[in-house]
């Protein structure tokens, strides 16, 4: 029931964001300001708004690194969403450490619920958040909850937008 509610809410957000995207494109006047080069093939360009949308919901390996760098210099609200995705989610998706008993104990003590079907990459990322030495106790709990909500968001995004299987395998492998 909760999952269906989340899916319906996410679908409504995607539909409304699509309308905003069309409005933003009709206002834009300088095409060079609306394109970025990302990924290994520098000849390929996509509208910045499209890449911002992708990278705000799903940190696609090989594409979003350049978009994150561009978002650091951009003050738009879409760039802010990309920066938040990176700082709260994508930067933790490295390594392959599974959740430890100490991690599980922390989650139990803080009352944080973890989805049963969390991917290995997201489990490793959750482990990284829990063990981030730069976070205070309060900030750690908030970061863990933020990470988990973004992990679910990324899975929902891919469910609705058919993320490429190769990119999903790369993300699960921590690439």
Specify the helix fraction band: 55-70%
How would you write the strand order of the largest sheet? Answer: 1-2
Classification by helices and strands = mainly alpha
Distance between the termini: 33 Å
Characteristics:
175 residues, mainly alpha, two-stranded antiparallel sheet, 8 helices, 2 strands, 63% helix, globular, disordered C terminus
What does this structure look like?
Strands 1-2 form a two-stranded antiparallel ribbon. It has a domain at about 90-170. The protein is mainly alpha-helical. It contains eight helices and two strands, in the order αββααααααα. The protein has helices at about 1-25, 50-55, 65-70, 75-90, 100-110, 120-130, 135-160, 165-170; strands at about 35, 45. Strand 1 and strand 2 (about 45) form a beta hairpin. The model is unreliable at about 1-45 and about 165-175 (pLDDT under 50).
Question: Topology of this structure?
Answer:
Blueprint: H1 2-27, E1 35-37, E2 45-47, H2 48-57, H3 64-71, H4 77-88, H5 101-110, H6 120-130, H7 137-161, H8 165-172
Antiparallel strand pairs: 1-2
Helix pairs in contact: 2-3, 2-4, 3-4, 6-7
